[in-house]
Amino acid sequence: MARDRNGPAVLAQLLLTPMVDDRNDSPSAQQMRRVGIWDSSSNKTGWNALLEYVTPALEILNSHIELEGRTIVDTIADNAAYGGMILGGNPTRPARVDLRRVSALLYRNETIEETGVAAGVLNHPANGVAWLANKLHQHGARLEAGEIILSGSFTRPMWVTPGGSVLCDYGQMGTLTCHFV
């Protein structure tokens, strides 16, 4: 995991087929309790009460299968294609921003490639976190204080290559940049 400080260099040779997508992430300020009764009507209150802040993130996917047009089944079979993440921008208390309306402009080599709005994640990014909390609860686990939670991507993954650069503009929440070497 790299904290975005003037664009960290990512060694692309360590990743088999790197791609990136954008996500809002949220370290929790306290443990989520009673997740079994967490529902969508609790989400706005939950985000404000349980989360310390939200901040832009880029997840670096490390696809082991070079397959454009891959499906969720391909991704699950590929160990969720996780490679790393970059956090940055302007950490913001959830109550200070309409999380449904957070948008992202995703650039590759100074050309806009993808756009999206956080409402594309189950109508509100908190719904993705609630889904995760309930799913973990079904297996006797829970989200712990201080964990980083990726709420779900609202753009498609974008292929990147060595020598390329990525910039994701989240408006008032800031920007993230990285360069693949």
UniProtKB/TrEMBL annotation:
**What Gene3D superfamilies does this protein's entry cite?**
Fumarylacetoacetase-like, C-terminal domain
Read off the InterPro entries from this record: Fumarylacetoacetase_C_sf (IPR036663), Hydratase-Decarb/MhpD_sf (IPR050772)
Ranges that cross the membrane: none
Matches recorded under PANTHER family: 2-KETO-4-PENTENOATE HYDRATASE, ACID HYDRATASE
Query: What is the protein named?
Result: 2-oxo-hepta-3-ene-1,7-dioic acid hydratase
Specify the species. Promicromonospora umidemergens
